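User: Run a structure prediction on this.
Assistant: Running it now.
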Amino acid sequence: MHRQILRLSVPNVITNITVPLLGLVDLAMMGHLGNPVFIGAIALGSTIFNIIYSSFAFLRMGTSGFTAQAFGAGQKEEISLVLYRSLGVGLLLALLLILFQYPIQWVAFQILDGSGEVTMLAREYFFIRILAAPATLALYALFGWFLGLQNAKIPMILAIVINLMNIVLNFVFIFGFGMKSDGVALASVLAQYTGLLLAAVLLVVKYRVYLSMFAPAVIFQITALRKFFKVNADIFVRTLLLLLVLAFFTSKSAGMGDDILAVNTLLFQFFFIFSYFADGFAFAGEALTGKAKGAGDGPLLRKTVKHLFRWGWGAAIAFFLLFMLGFNPLLRMLTDSIQLMELSQQFRYWVILLPLTSFAAFIWDGVYIGVTASKAMRNTMIAATFLIFLPAYYLSLPIIGSHSLWLSLHLFMVSRGILLWWLKEKAIYME
């Protein structure tokens, strides 16, 4: 079991880490062009796509759970059908994004505040990068499908190839052809389609056995689609509320002043760093618990959850110690501002404790996605957001000021872990 968890979690951690590295490269290239408007354009454009694609992350999660259960049950035909349904839904969503790109960008730029030049460049970035939507959402479906088949190496390979291609094309377009933020957008588009082409090749080479022919009526069977959309709708609501909490954290930080906004943004990177590792074990949980449920093996499911939490505790303690002993050196890697470093000391213990208070929510998320217990995930997220996070913030704000954001974030993560643990017998286990 330990080997299975590591076999799935390590490639997923590597996959997760490649994403922020690409963002850093994009910003670094724009930062060397000598005009801050290019950085602003990338920041605004990327924010729009981060929100859009994070909202559609259910496509990867739902596909992973359904595929893992079919794999555990040995249902070859259902494995194939999940792939076709996921790709079909992904393509439909992508076409809708392209079809409604003008109203989407209008709404986005009404909300996002930027100077005239930054907004103009960000719009140019948006209209180029939106062309990658079919490839991006198809890759979401394929990533989830591969993971459901207990294969985390192919998603890792794809992520590495896509991001390396993106970086190479950045250099070519920016330093070779003299393009600016539009070059970054075009590089993203071409890299996504390169990744999709490679995914198609690997699919044919390694999983040709699942490429069966089905009539459209079989693929888009009403009962199966209803279940598919129900699970994904629950995950969509859960993801949307998570984005709301993160956006609320940033928005209220901004209202507390530029220094608090800067410090909270810097310190939140510690949380993101931990999340890349915790999500690696959560993704492993999706594959392994889905497989156990599909096989109808209740004892194996309990054993899997038990071992996942052992690794989760280990990761949480390791990062707790890393943040406690390395807080200042890590912070110096993010900023050389003495003022921000001194202000950060007021919040250091909130950051140090985050791995311990949040890891359970990550692990349970993976378990619940694997067994497609989406209703419980949705309901616990609703409760944690509206009954814990928001009340905790508004009640503690007059008492502890800017610390209220960190307190409410901790209570939000702890409550999610506790609620998911409390519902586990009814929601995920079988005897």
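The mean pLDDT is 88.
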